[in-house]
Amino acid sequence: MKLTNEEKELLDSVEKGEWQQITDFKNESLRYKEIAKNTLRKNKRVNIRMSERDLVRFQKKALQEGLPYQTFISSILHKYINGYS
Questions:
Q1: How many domains does the chain have?
Q2: Contact between 39 and 33 (Cβ < 8 Å)
Q3: Rounded distance, CA 66 to CA 18, Å?
Q4: Is 0.70 surpassed by the pTM of this model?
Q5: Residue 73: inside a domain, yes or no?
Q6: Using alpha carbons only, what angle is made at residue 62 by residues 59 and 66, rounded to the nearest 5 degrees?
Q7: For residues 28 and 22, is the Cβ–Cβ distance under 8 A?
Q8: Which residues of the chain are under the pLDDT cut of 50?
């Protein structure tokens, strides 16, 4: 089986004993699931106007990423306001 560089780094890290077991995995897992659910909740609607050219470019990029274009635009905005530009 061929591993990517990232997979090789992870395997090396595990084999070196750099990973630690989570003592209360069940509760930690539930906590992170709740955080993810709250982060991904989309409960507000926004309408914006943009040029057709920009919209088409968003749609093409979203298609390449395998995402609906509105989700793609929302993701870009989320990353920008959180400093991940």
A1: 1
A2: no
A3: 34
A4: no
A5: yes
A6: 135
A7: yes
A8: none
